[in-house]
Each structure stands twice: as C-alpha cells, then as structure tokens.
Amino acid sequence: MGRNATQIVRCILISAVFLFSSANLLAQLQSEPLVVSAEPERLLTGRALRDALEERRSETSKGIPLRQALQRLRMDTGIAIVLDRRIDPSRLVDASTEYVTTRNSISAYAKSAAASASFGDNVVAIGPADATARLRTLTTINRKSILSMRRTLAAELYRSLAKSHNWSWRDLTAPRQLIVQAAIDLGTTVDNPEIIPHDLWATVNLPPLTFVEFATLVLNQFDLNFEVTADDTIRIVPGVESVAIQQTHRVPSREKDTVVKRWQKDFPQLTVNWKGGSAVVTATVETHERLRELIRNNGTGPVAAAAVKDRLFTMKAAAGTPIGRVIDTLRQSGIRMRIDGRTDEELAPLLLQTVEFDLVKSPGSEFFPRVFSTWDVDVTVNAEGVVLMFSTP
C-alpha cells in the first residue's frame, strides 16, 4: 500500500496560523485548531510499520509545537514516534510537503527542528544527527551481544530478554527508574543506575519492544549503553560516537560493474572488499539497506500523485473554523484550487464563513462538495485539482 501513483494521500490539517492576502482578513480568522482522528487501536510494528512509512500523503504544519505535530501524526498513522530528550518539544514546526511518503514527512518535521530521524523496525526516533545515525546499528549490535550469551545466561533471564514487553511511560517519569524497573521486570538488577543522569520525561506510548530495543532507545539519549554481566545483571556503560556492522552483499557477476557505479555514486567514501561476487562492507544498518536497494536498482525518484478525485482525505474542522483557513491549508498541502465567479472583494466575507465537519478517508469526489456545502457553488473535482464556480450574481 502506498508504493505507486494510485495510492491514497491523507491531508492532515494541523493547528496553525496561516497567512491570507488581506491583513484585515487575517485579523478576523479564528484560531480554533483543525484536529485529526482519535488514537489508533494499536501502534504498528514490523511490516505494517514499513508499509505505513511508504504511504504517500500531504502535510502542512506551521506555527505549532513539534510534540503536538508528532502526536497528531502518530494518531493518524499508528506510528510510534519518540522525541529525543535533547530536542525542544515546544519548538514551532514550519514544514509543508506535497505528495511524499510518510517517511519523508517525518524527516521534514525533524529537519524543521534541526534534527534527524531514525526509522527502526518498531519505533521512529527523532533526535540529534549523531544519536539517530547510530541508534539502529547500536540496537543490532546489542541484540547480537545478547544472542552470543545465550548459553551462558540464566535460561529465564534470556527468555525475558528475548521477549517483547510493554515499556510505555507516563508524564514526569525518570528514565533512570525506567531502566531500573525494566531490569526488575526481567528478574535482575542494574549494577550502577546512578550513571544515568536525573531527568523527567513526558508521556510516551510504545508498541511492545524487547529490552534491547527499549534500553538502547532510552540510554542512547544520554550517550550511554548497557551490557549484561557474567553475573546476569545489567551494567550501564559509556556509549560510542559511531558504530558499524559487517555484512556481505552478493552481486550477480553480470551486474557487478553497474552496481559498483551505483554504490560509488551514493557512497563515494565507502570501503568495499570484494571476494568474487561477494562484497564485504562495514557500515551502518541504514547504509547496508541502501546498498541492497541499489543492487535491486530500486529508485528513489518522485512518484506522481493520484488524481485528486481518487485520493482519500481525513480532516476534522472544529465548529467555528473559517472556510478560508481550510482553503489555505489545502493549497499549502499541494491541492490546486481555483475560485471563479467572485471578485476578491466579494470573496472576502465568504472566506470568513465557518464550517464544521469530521471526514475520515473521504474520496476527493465526495470530500470537496461536503466541505463547500455551505456555499452556493458548483464544485468540480478533476485529476489536477478543484474548481469552485459561483453562478453570476
């Protein structure tokens, strides 16, 4: 779902302040936020998460706190997004995208906050570039470390480490206590919890995670890591600035020259040791994923948007929302709109009229007539956009 031009787009209306051409009009517009649908029943993981990240959508978010924007995106998509403690959650977002993947939309939010995103198997993390760059690889290294201890760890502890648990937390939770309690739940203890600085964190909802995923996610925010000792306890250790893992990539001999050129274009500094048709590479998890994509020649070029009339829209406008604000938001989301039959002067009071609607996955052919049902106007929805035609006065 979401991998070709016929896929749906969800235009999320986020609480924002939008600029209209008339200063007098701007002063009259109400600020009641436009909100999205309720919390999903469950947060996505694995293949479902990867599919959701590849769905295509339009986003328009301006002048609202980053945490609020991410919460609304999570509610609409079911993707768990964790904001690193070093990123200011109150920083105002200024991010707009056209028809791009949800992955690209999240990256746009991160960039707006001078941060970057890490897309894991179960969780998306937004934080400083160095922290997010190592997160998935560090998680993989920690997972392999636990696996290597399978025969030496107590059987019950190993089973607990391999099992997924619910690690979500409430407002004003201390991360040190999170790790201490997680160890208790595993049936062990933390040797040196005082190494974790005192802090208080806001609520975070997570899907079930293994201890490795959870502890790496928490400790990485302090540039720390953990290890399991020979005594079956947890010890907090200093983190590392950069990490890498070695993998072997097999390339068909007839395609080797072409693949080498693709790799060199994307990763000119990458060291590759060839053994026949096998390439041994030491790099991050993300780099290995991209190398495999380049072997398959998976492009990353733009994908054309589905016709506006065929897209599915999810929007909720609270009572008192000016219709002009809805129009401006749709335009900033890449929807072409034309209004004929009224001068700017005649149109100004109409834009101040208010609407109220709550539409979920509504086809464009039905969505736009419903949004403009209070206007005496003919609504035409075609492949390129929307035309609103007023009759002659």
Whole-number average pLDDT?
Answer: 85
The sequence of SSEs as H and E is: EHEHEHEEHEEHHHHEEEHEEHEHEHEHEE
Uncertain stretches of 5 or more adjacent residues:
1-40
By DSSP, the count of extended strands is 17
For the termini, the CA-CA separation is 46 Å
Helix content: 25-40%
User: Can you tell me the overall shape?
Assistant: globular
The total domain count is 3
Overall radius of gyration: 25 Å
Main-sheet strand order equals 1-3-5
| Discrete helix count | 13
Biggest pleated-sheet summary: 3 strands, mixed
Structural class: alpha+beta
Strand proportion, as a percent range, falls in: 25-35%
Topology record:
Blueprint: E1 11-13, H1 23-28, E2 34-35, H2 46-54, E3 56-65, H3 66-77, E4 81-83, E5 92-101, H4 102-112, E6 116-119, E7 124-127, H5 129-148, H6 155-162, H7 175-186, H8 211-219, E8 224-228, E9 234-238, E10 245-250, H9 256-266, E11 272-275, E12 278-283, H10 285-296, E13 312-322, H11 323-332, E14 336-340, H12 344-351, E15 354-363, H13 364-371, E16 377-381, E17 385-390
Parallel strand pairs: 1-3, 4-7, 14-17
Antiparallel strand pairs: 2-13, 3-5, 6-7, 8-9, 10-12, 11-12, 13-15, 16-17
Key terms for this structure?
393 residues; alpha+beta; Phage tail protein beta-alpha-beta fold; Alpha-Beta Plaits; three-stranded mixed sheet; three-stranded antiparallel sheet; 13 helices; disordered N terminus
General description of the model:
This protein is globular. 35% of the residues lie in helices and 25% in strands. The chain has a three-stranded mixed beta sheet with strand order 1-3-5, sandwiched between helices. Strands 2-13-15 form a three-stranded antiparallel beta sheet. It has three domains: 1-127 and 307-393, no CATH class; 155-238, Phage tail protein beta-alpha-beta fold; 245-296, Alpha-Beta Plaits. With 393 residues, it is α+β, with helices and mostly antiparallel strands. The two termini are 46 Å apart. The chain has helices spanning 23-28, 46-54, 66-77, 102-112, 129-148, 155-162, 175-186, 211-219, 256-266, 285-296, 323-332, 344-351, 364-371, and strands at residues 11-13, 34-35, 56-65, 81-83, 92-101, 116-119, 124-127, 224-228, 234-238, 245-250, 272-275, 278-283, 312-322, 336-340, 354-363, 377-381, 385-390. Helix 5 runs antiparallel to helix 8 and helix 7 runs antiparallel to helix 8. The protein contains 13 helices and 17 strands.
